[in-house]
DNA sequence: ACGAGATAATCTGCCGCACAGACTATATTG
DNA sequence: CAATATAGTCTGTGCGGCAGATTATCTCGT
């Protein structure tokens, strides 16, 4: 995932093994390829691909807390701390005290951060388009739809209520 | 390989962001989920998911050298060394001198290794099946086919976008 | 109101992994 | 035969994930 995508390999052999695990392998190859391309594009961001994902989450969501960000992106919360330190240092986002819960910090993007993300989003869109250049437009749409459907259908079955917590602060009852 | 996704996080929230990068995100979520499930299954192997992929590659391919294994899986060759050390120690594979090139070692699975992999393959197949439980059988086949097609069609295509990089830099002093 | 427990963020320390570099053994080429 | 290249190993460095402790704050039961 994302992660984990620190791998760097020059001789990328797209050799599909005769294994039953076509899923994991194809997923891995594609994600690695995606990461490589997005890495090239977001090289100026403090943390490359991860940085892009964090910034995107910050901009596109209602001002999230660090914890919700970390949970959503699958990043450890202790990592999120110094990752956001860099972002603040670079003037991409700001930390604000949540007036309701003074333990929490709301992460809001600066104007500069929004601008940077806009450029990145465009570049990433191009990169993804190029990545799927082997597929017909119709096939891409189907793939995207199925992928999204499959990804959203992965219920961790543990914390079902936690999904709600990640959003905005709780206008908790009165 | 799979890289990138070394992330491990209990509270995985399947919250799709309103970002243009649906591809990378869905890919990341799915691969992370896949890794988690396969991790549970291959917990007895020396290196978890990675170990499974290595063993699968060893068994399903013609006896590969360490270098070719590393290249295929996107693992560093220095890592491959001690990873295979463990495998040999556990009696899963053997290192044999290549009679043609005495620098190289051919990695061949032991009978035990084959047996272990057979069990793992079955378990992984079940895990993948469960992972895609949200999709109809027809949809799964299509997804798998498109995925494989997209993964095999990834051309390296190096120098193209290097020029775009310099434009979006935030004040990165560090 | 008070104390017990939970939660957000931070800080510290450990460990695994990627990566660069050196080294040995062998192969290839001039 | 010398020079160079390659397979594998070993060593050291740095980053990132992760567990644990700490501080500040919230929540709940009494």
Automatic annotation (TrEMBL), chains A, B:
It comes from the Bacteria. Residues 20-152 form the HTH marR-type domain. InterPro entries: HTH_MarR-typ, MarR/SlyA-like, WH-like_DNA-bd_sf, WH_DNA-bd_sf. GO terms for biological process: response to stress. Signal peptide: none annotated. Pfam families: MarR_2. GO terms for molecular function: DNA-binding transcription factor activity. Transmembrane segments: none annotated. This is HTH marR-type domain-containing protein. It comes from Planobispora siamensis.
């Amino acid at each position: 995932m994302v992660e984990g995508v620190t791998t760097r390999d020059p001789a990328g052999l797209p050799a599909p093994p005769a294994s039953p695990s076509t899923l994991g392998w194809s997923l891995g190859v594609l994600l690695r390829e995606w990461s490589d391309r997005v890495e090239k594009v977001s090289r100026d961001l403090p943390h490359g691909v991860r940085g892009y994902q964090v910034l995107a989450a910050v901009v596109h969501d209602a001002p999230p807390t660090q914890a919700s960000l970390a949970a959503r992106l699958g990043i450890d919360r202790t990592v999120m701390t110094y990752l956001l330190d860099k972002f603040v240092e670079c003037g991409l986002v700001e930390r604000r005290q949540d007036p309701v819960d003074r333990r929490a910090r709301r992460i809001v993007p600066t104007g500069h951060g929004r601008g940077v993300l806009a450029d990145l989003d465009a570049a990433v869109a191009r990169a993804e388009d190029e990545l799927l250049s082997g597929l017909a437009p119709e096939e891409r749409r189907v793939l995207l739809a199925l992928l999204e459907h499959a990804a959203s259908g992965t219920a961790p079955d543990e914390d079902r209520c936690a999904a709600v917590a990640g959003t905005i602060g709780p206008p908790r009852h009165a």
